Amino acid sequence: MRVEYINPFVETSFRVLKEVLGGAEVKRGDLYLKSTAMPVMGVAALVGLAGDVEGRVLFDMTFETALNIASKMNEEKLPAFDDLAKATISELANLITAQSVTKLHDLGFKFDLTPPALFAGEKMEIAALGGTTDNVEALIVPLITDYGKIEVNVAIRERT
Question: Which residues contact 154 (CB under 8 A, 6 or more apart)?
C-alpha cells in the first residue's frame, strides 16, 4: 500500500474531526497494520473506492463514541443511536472521504467512491476486499478525541 494513498485520508480525517467537534483536541495514536477480516467496535461507516486503485476506508468506533460525535455535530444531546445519529455518522464519513479523494485527484490518481454504508451491531466482522480470498492488510490510524476514539481503517491496493 503506497503512503500517498493513505496520507490524504489521515490528514483529512484529523482536520474534519477537529472542525466538526468545534476545535476539540484530536490526537493521532500509533499506526498499525491489521488483517482486513477483523471485528469492528460497534459502528462502522464504510466507503468503497474503485478506479486506479480498489479498496475501502472504514471509520470504526464504539456506539458511545458515535453517539457523542453525532450529538456534538447536531448541537444537541441525542438520546439514542437513532436515524439522525446514523445519518450524521454517514455524513461525517462522506465529508472525509470526498475531501480525501479530491486531494488524490489533484495528485493525479483517478477513482470514485461508493456512498457510505453504515454498519452497527455487536460482534460484526468486515471481510476481505471485493470478496476475494486475498488477505489485504489495512492500515489503522487511531484518532483520539474527548468524544472517543475513531479508527480510520484504510485498505487500498492498486488494480492489476
Answer: 1, 5, 6, 9, 10, 55, 56, 57, 58, 138, 139, 141
Residue 131: left (phi > 0), alpha (psi -120 to 50), or beta? left
76: phi then psi, degrees, rounded to nearest 5: -155, 150
**Per-residue b/e over 119-149, b at no fewer than 16 CB within 10 Å?**
ebeeeeebeebeeeeeebebbbbbbebebbe
Distance CA 67, CA 147 (A): 9
Query: What are the tens digits of pLDDT across the range 59-93?
Result: 999 999 999 999 999 999 999 999 999 999 999 99
| Rounded to 5°, angle at Cα 51 from 158 and 109 | 75
Phi-psi region of 42 (alpha: psi -120 to 50; beta: other; left: phi over 0): left
Local confidence band at 49 (pLDDT 50, 70, 90 cut-offs): confident
pTM of the shown model: 0.88
